[in-house]
Design a protein that fits this description.
This protein has 67 residues and is mainly alpha-helical. It contains three helices and no strands.
């Protein structure tokens, strides 16, 4: 639950990862189909979530050095 509370202000980063994935899909293919857009968006979301989780974990570790 603490993870979700710490993410309140991080949804902009997640949304930008989603948009970045869609933009990359359009750059790779002039007219991408729906499945390509969904896959690119999902990859962007997964990367954004992984980065945010890594930052949260690092911050948690620095606040509690005994863990």
């Amino acid at each position: 639950m603490n993870y979700l509370k710490s993410r309140e202000n991080s949804y902009a980063a997640l949304l930008s990862g989603l948009i970045l994935g869609v933009v990359i899909a359009f750059l790779i293919n002039d007219d991408p189909d729906t499945s390509t857009l969904i896959a690119a968006g999902a990859i962007g979301v997964v990367i954004g979530e992984a980065i945010m989780f890594w930052r949260w974990h690092r911050q948690k570790k620095s606040n509690n050095p005994e863990s």
